[in-house]
Structures are given as C-alpha cells and as structure tokens.
Write a structure and sequence with these properties.
Single alpha-helices involved in coiled-coils or other helix-helix interfaces, alpha+beta, elongated, 10 strands, about 400 residues, Beta-Lactamase, five-stranded mixed β-sheet, 11 helices, Heat Shock Protein 90, about 50% helix
C-alpha cells in the first residue's frame, strides 16, 4: 500500500451511525427540557453504551459534602440497596469536583488519591472521569469504569465523554437559569402587588380613617352631620373591600386559568424535582373541572405541604396525587420525612401552616386531614366536591 494513502495516526475516524444516533438522543433530551434527573440519566446511559463499559455515573455536588444528584447505569436496584447511602465527596470523586483535569487511570485502586468503597460496592479498575464545567465552575463530574475488551480507556473515549459532559453542563445550567428566572418573576410579582395595594387600597383606607375621625368629633356637636360622615365611612370601607377583592383575585396563578389544576401541579412538582435532592413524583386521574376557588385552594395547600416536606421534614421522597371518586376530587401529598406529633399543642401546627391550610379547605367546603407521627412521614389529604364553590 502506498504510505501516502494511509490516514494519519491521529486522524479521527468517522463516527459510526449508532454513535451519532445515541449522541443525538442525548442532545434531544437536553433540548426537550425534560427533568434534570431524566436528562442526566440519558447522558449516563448513553456514555456507558457508547464507550462499552460496565459502569457509568454522574454526580452533582451539594453544599453539605454529599451529592444533590447522583445517577448511575450498570448497577441494579438490589445492588444499590446493598451498597447503602449515596457516596460523599471523598477520594477520586472529591478530586474531580475540585480539579478540572480529566482523570484517565489504568486502575483506580492503585491511585494514591483513591479512598474507599462500601463492602458491596462493585470493583472498579480502569477509570475515566471528566468534569462537567460551566466556564471555570465545576458543576459535577461524569465517570466510567471497566471497559470491555480493553484494559484502559483511549483518548478517543475521553473526547467522546467530554462531549457528553458538555451536554450535561447545558442541562444543569438551564435548570439553574429556569429557577433563577422563576424567582425573579416572583419578586417582580410581589412588587407589583405592593404597588397595587398602595395605589388602590391604602389611599381609600387613609380617607376612611380621616372621615371616621371627623365623625367622632361631630357626634355630640352635630349628630346629623356625624351620621352623614359615618355613612361615608361605610361607603369608603365597601370600596376598599372591593378594591382588595380585585387585587386578591389577580393573585390567582395564571397557570390555573390556562392549564388547569393537574397540569399546574405537574409542572410545580417537576420543577421542585429538578432543584431538590428529594425524589418528587406526580400522578393524576382524569379529574373533572373544579371551580376557580377550589382549584386555587388545592394548589395552595399542595404548595404548603410540599414546602413543609422539603424544608422542614427533610424528606427523601414526596408524592403528589390527584384522584376522582363519587363527584369528589382528592389531593394527596405524602412524604417520608421526619413527621411530627399531631396531638401536640398548636406551636408545630402554626409553624407548618396547618391553620391556613384548614382555613382554605373550609372556604371551599373541603375536608382536610393530616396524618403524621415522629419519624414516620406526613400525609396531607384534601377532598373537595367536584365543581367546588363559585
């Protein structure tokens, strides 16, 4: 063969069609803006399949020495149960979260930076780890172990894994920007409400106070005029109440009018699932329409219960469900968190917002039950009549 016709030793060979198809699936998963957990799982599974190895994993650190997300491919549920809790940021995992240099090792166990494994952990030999970067910030790391038919990972393997790490960075950055945008929207909405309350209600309340003071000074000196002033007080109070009612009506989440209760809840749960370490799930029957006030009550009660589960109960899993039986719609929010003693005095109830949840339930002729015990999680159930209260 004429040497001039041979390809250069470092020339990349064309990617096989299967490789391109799997890369395309990973890219589309990011573009589809599915939950971060699903996107990362797709990327990890794609990496393991394309680079043909026993194990693949991806970790996104939290601020407490553990991982906010840790997804794997190649380990069964039974093996995970035997391994135990999620890993901490130690050993080579800790190295990859502090050093942006890829790690390509012939045997992880022989590296002096290797830490330790639980007894049931699979044995990893050849190891390839690539950081997930957003500029200079390390968002996480993706790594593979035990390639098939070869003793080490190649440079081409490392380049391909770096491509997938880039897509993981896009998914994580999108999730962060989405949450920041949502927080900004909430701040702007609070500012708008404050302006509305000041412009529409505060001025009428100020006039009402002045008129009431005038009436008080006239009670003995000019009773007839005092009566007229009190009539004006009543009219101003009625106007203020109506203005306040209109402002409150505008606080109804726009998603409820546009999407309905089930889809609004599904999106809220999906968002929380992306940004919290807990695993959140949502399930819904084909429920009948509810009146606007009943939909809003159900949404607000669900939000309060979710806040309690994630912020106070340190739940690992939270489930939200909507079901329909006998002209009644049932909302259930259950978690496996710390729980509390429902028989205790009102302090715990006040902290957890149970009083406001019960008030919302009564306002729409609903039935609210809260089942909990220390160490046994909490279940909040709301049942409202289909059609609600208009």
């Amino acid at each position: 063969m004429d040497p001039s016709t041979e390809p250069a030793a470092d020339a990349p060979s064309p990617a096989p069609p299967a490789t391109l198809e799997e890369l395309s699936a990973a890219v589309l998963a990011v573009a589809a803006r599915r939950s971060v957990r699903d996107v990362l799982q797709t990327i990890v599974s794609t990496a393991r399949n394309l680079l043909d190895c026993d194990y693949a994993a991806l970790g996104v650190p939290d601020d407490l020495g553990g991982f906010a997300e840790f997804v794997v491919d190649g380990v069964s549920d039974e093996e995970w149960d035997a391994i135990g809790p999620l890993p901490r940021q130690h050993g080579m995992l800790g190295v990859m979260l502090s050093d942006p240099t890829p790690q390509n090792l012939p045997d992880l166990r022989q590296d002096p930076r290797f830490g330790w494994w639980p007894a049931a952990h699979p044995k990893l030999a050849a190891f390839l780890g690539v950081p997930i970067l957003d500029g200079d910030e390390i968002l996480g790391a993706i790594f593979l172990a035990n390639p098939h038919g070869r003793t080490v990972f190649s440079d081409a393997d490392q380049r391909l894994l770096a491509v997938l790490a880039t897509h993981a960075a896009v998914a994580l950055t999108n999730a962060r920007l989405y949450e920041q945008g949502r927080e900004l929207t909430l701040v702007q909405e609070r500012q708008r409400i404050a302006r509305e309350l000041h412009d529409a209600v505060a001025q009428k309340l100020f006039s009402l106070r002045l008129t009431a003071q005038a009436a008080a000074t006239l009670v003995h000196r000019d009773p007839d005029r005092a009566v007229a002033e009190l009539d004006e007080v009543a009219a101003l109070a009625s106007d203020a109440a109506e203005e306040l009612r209109q402002v409150v009506a505008e606080l109804r989440p726009i998603e409820l009018s546009r999407l309905g209760l089930a889809e609004t809840l599904r999106r809220r749960v999906a968002l929380l699932d992306r940004v919290h370490t807990a695993r959140l799930t949502f399930a819904a029957d084909d429920i009948p329409p509810l009146a606007p006030d009943a939909e809003e009550a159900a949404l607000r009660i669900a939000e309060e219960a979710l806040h309690n589960a994630l912020r106070h109960a340190s739940a690992g899993t939270v489930g939200v469900a909507l079901s329909h039986t006998d002209h009644r719609v049932r909302l259930t929010v259950s978690d496996d968190g710390a729980g509390f003693d429902t028989r205790a005095a009102g302090g715990a109830s006040n902290r957890l917002g149970l009083a406001s949840m019960r008030a919302r339930s009564r306002a729409v002729h609903g039935e609210l039950t809260v089942t909990s015990a220390p160490g046994r999680g909490t279940t909040v159930t709301l049942v409202v009549p289909a059609g609600g209260v208009t």
